[in-house]
Specification:
Layout lengths: L1 H9 L16 H8 L16 H6 L14
Length: 70
């Protein structure tokens, strides 16, 4: 189950998921978590429900292509 969830979060094959993005962490949210774009630094820490990031102000929506790196 954990491996499936890890694949789900780390794939680039899945785009935006509509209403699911209001509550659950989707691949789009997790891409932001790994991004080094200035607006994506220190964002989207939640693992299952995105509501925690929204409550604590660490939520950022994916609006431009994510650049990965260090």
């Amino acid at each position: 189950m954990h491996l499936l969830l890890a694949y789900w979060h780390h794939t680039r094959l899945i785009g935006r998921l509509g209403w699911l993005e209001r509550l659950f962490v989707t691949p789009s949210h997790h891409r932001v978590h790994h991004g080094v774009n200035p607006q994506y630094i220190d964002k989207n820490y939640a693992e299952f429900v995105i509501i925690w990031d929204k409550l604590f102000g660490s939520y950022e929506e994916e609006v431009e292509e994510v650049c990965y790196g260090i």
